Amino acid sequence: MRGIVGVTGSPGTGKKSISPLVAAALGLKCLAINDLARKCGALGRGGSEVDVELLRDRIGREVTGPALLFGHLIPYVLDPRSARKVVILRCDPGVLKTRLARRGYSARKLRENVEAELIGVVSADAYSAFGPNCFEFDTTRTTPGGAAERVVRLLQKARPAPRVDWTLGYDSAKLRSLLSAASSPLT
């Protein structure tokens, strides 16, 4: 596969687990955006803020040839002309809330990330940047290996996948529970 394959999604959707498996199956070098940001000095104090301009420039100069890049910043740092395909990993917000709570996310960060996944922030930004080269994939009920196999097939077929819309499955009571300030996962 020529060009750069991007794998993006909200935190907790499986980027770190799935990307190396997809890269190996496609014979691509696998690079984490966060590692590149650290390496080039694009991380600000505390490692939470990223200089996207510096990172975009560094990626443009250093990542040549076929590769798989992964991270939630893909829509903001990958030049659309370099992107062959972009896979957006999605996860049901209730399941994502459980995953992030297990990681010890603060109540504020938990709510921000679950809300972003619910309304599709990363997905919308990826489609805005890369248009028809985007493919969404639901990782809610699959293993990393199973997800990787299906993502590889999706990339090889290169046919558009249906978009994910979590908002259709949440009534007001379920939304209140999902977005509560408490960091406890949904039951």
Features:
single chain, 5 strands, 187 residues, 48% helix, globular, Rossmann fold, alpha/beta
What would your notes on this structure say?
With 187 residues, the chain is of the alpha/beta class. Helices cover 48% and strands 14% of the residues. It contains nine helices and five strands; from the N terminus they run E-H-E-H-H-E-H-E-H-H-H-E-H-H. It has helices at 15-26, 33-40, 52-62, 74-77, 93-102, 107-119, 121-130, 144-157, 172-178, and strands at 4-9, 29-32, 67-70, 83-90, 134-138. The chain has a five-stranded parallel beta sheet with strand order 2-3-1-4-5, sandwiched between helices. The N and C termini lie far apart (42 Å).
Short recap of the structure:
With 187 residues, this protein is α/β, with parallel strands linked by helices.
Helix/strand layout:
Layout (H helix, E strand, L loop, with lengths): L3 E6 L5 H12 L2 E4 H8 L11 H11 L4 E4 L3 H4 L5 E8 L2 H10 L4 H13 L1 H10 L3 E5 L5 H14 L14 H7 L9
Parallel strand pairs: 1-3, 1-4, 2-3, 4-5
Question: CATH topology, which one?
Answer: Rossmann fold
What proportion of the residues is helical, as a percent range? 40-55%
Structural class: alpha/beta
CATH top level class name: Alpha Beta
* CATH superfamily (homologous) name: P-loop containing nucleotide triphosphate hydrolases
Rg is 16 Å
Quaternary structure type: single chain
Strand content: 5-15%
Query: How many separate helices?
Result: 9
What spatial order of strands do you see in the largest sheet?
A: 2-3-1-4-5
The end-to-end span amounts to 42 Å
